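Hi X.,

You mentioned you wanted examples for the new student's onboarding notes, showing what a folding record looks like when two proteins sit in one file. Here is a clean example. The first protein comes first, with its sequence line followed by its structure tokens.
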Amino acid sequence: MHTIEYDVQRPNRDVVSAFEEIPSTIVSDVTGNVGLTMDSGINPAYEGAETAGTAITVKAAPGDNLIIHKAITMAEPGDILVIDADGFTETGHLGELMCKSCQVNGIAGIVIDGSVRDRQALAEMEFPVYARGTHPRGPLKQDPGSINVSVSCGGVAVEPGDVIVGDDDGIAVAPRENAAEILERSREKLDSEDAVREELVEGEYLFELNGYDRLFEELEVVGPEDSIQ
């Protein structure tokens, strides 16, 4: 069944914009490290790509981009297209021209579980794109698809309106319904790391600061002296 939903509930725009200052690693940390961070196969198309925005989700047939063209016309400024192409990497589902259309219309980026092409042009444009691979072959335009439905991208379930945060480390997802809470916890985490960084400059070790020494003592570690009978 193919579905297009036109109404998307988005978090407060100020909340979404604030995520531009939050690294994906911090979002991953405060959401528990698992379940909301896309797998390592989803990488930026060029070094230095950064973005944050609200998800417009797309379910596309592998090797076909007709529904992606439609989604571009529906996205609002600040949105990020999150495309589930079943991880198919033998076709470049989008490239320079589609990304230029996105860029001039204020779309904040694209994340696709599939391949793209024209990587050098995307770098020159400085348009944030994250993909599972690159491939020169162009896509078909013969299969329908769905927009603004639940999708799986990089091993993560993404809903329309979720906040997507991307940088050189990868992609993290903040669910729409608790994006404000995740933002606040992320800010607290950044402040905490600033304080720790000052102690590290003074020569302290994370091993002691974070209590890892106590954890270590609780483990059964055998040293050379323990092997002497």
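Then the second protein repeats the pattern, sequence line and then tokens:
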Amino acid sequence: MKRLSLLFVEDNETLRTRISGMLGEYFYFVESAADGIEGLEKYHEYLTRHKCYDIVISDIRMPRMNGVEFARELRSIREDQPIIILSAYAEAEYLLDLINIGISQFITKPIEYSQMFETLYKVCSKIDNNSSAAVSSSMIAISEEVFWDKDKKLLLENGTAIALTKYEILLMELLIAKFEQVCSSDEILYHFYNNSIDVNADNLRGQFMRLRKKLPDKALTSIYGMGYRLSSVL
């Protein structure tokens, strides 16, 4: 769960605040919305900065746009978007529509935490199996808070991008390609040369000093006589 993002959509403010806070202890990024319209706005906003949310949890009965309409909109954006629906037993009239758009995961209301986490575990396990581990994901965990997005070339801390220069982005690309391995100075200089950038060993040390300040403590280390290594500090 610690590498997954989640959107929680619920019109009851007390329940929304309580569940969002609880889920925030388990997922790397959790955002909430009060109804389907706001949920859709948050979804599009997140999509411009990252990929889709890994998981969306939504209530059924909500003002402006209900859970069925919201889920249908999400599926038009991403056909395989994992969606979990909060459903009271009295809302059975909605279930056929939800099943028809491919939703099969439900959490009954009032929420029982054991059932909620059992459902989340199943969905997260399926996501993990589909991605065949973190290597297949665009998100590389450097710490619990800091991730590198390989597709968008972004360094993220708690979902917020850390500003990098074009030189630091080039360094991160190479260091991620050799994640947990030593990357020699010659390899780094050649990488810059291939990108039509002329640097020398002194410039390189300065670049690494600046990049190190933007990464978690002890994530980027210099190996005397060999080069540099980027490692996870989870």
